[in-house]
Every structure is written in C-alpha cells, then in structure tokens.
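Researcher: If convenient, please comment on what follows.
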Amino acid sequence: MITFFRRLLVRLGKTIPFVLAFMLLVGYIESIYAVISQNLIVDVENETLYDLPITFFLSSIVYIDWFDVLIVWILCVALELCKYSFRCAIYLTLNLAVRYALETLSLDGWVIIPLCSFMALFGLFCVYGGFKMIKYQKRKF
C-alpha cells in the first residue's frame, strides 16, 4: 500500500506541472487570438476586457498562484524530477510575472502579442517535453 501511494505521488508530481503548463498555453494562445481579432467585452464596471471564454472557464476551476508554484517547485526538488519538470516550474514562475504585468499595466496590443507569443512558445516547449518524457517512460516499463 505504501508503494502504491509513493508511485502515485511520483506520477502526480510528474504530471501536474505539465497539466498546468498546458492550461497556460491554451490561455496564451487564446489571448493572442483575442488581441489580433479585437474580441472585446464590457464588464459591469464599464471596463473593456478581451473576450477569453476558455481562459475564464479554466481560471474558474484552477487559479495558479504563488502557492501552487511553490508546491510545484517543492515537488520538483523533493522528487528529483527531470529537466522538463524544472522547465515547467520556471514557466509557471515566469507566468506569475507576466500575469502581474498584464493585469496591472495598460499595455498596447503590439506589446501584448510578442509577450504572449513568447510565453506560448515556451509553454509549447514545456508541454512537448512532457509528452516526450511520458512517451519515454512508457517505453521503459
């Protein structure tokens, strides 16, 4: 029974960073699309926001905060995971800085698109590494 929970913890520790990175990847791709196509909505306080329905749905389920990133870093260090997991932890940490910049600063579209494009490419790189790791892991066993 103890070995079952140990394996479960290792598998969760290996997959959680990639799942969070995939969710962020979807959000950044949707942000790029909304900025390019100028999909805007007006909220209750008469502020204009970009229309991001998938991101709004995902953020109602999971909101990635400092605590979540700290847990991912602890799992990566404690379980001595691979370089792909550490890249995802770096991506999640960088996401907090980018999200802070996007939420607090009033940025133009020509700044938002390259920033979100960089984060989407970095997220794609992280998710690809996760698929590569899982594929290698299945061949190994």
Summary: The longest strand covers residues 40-42. The chain has a mean pLDDT of 86.
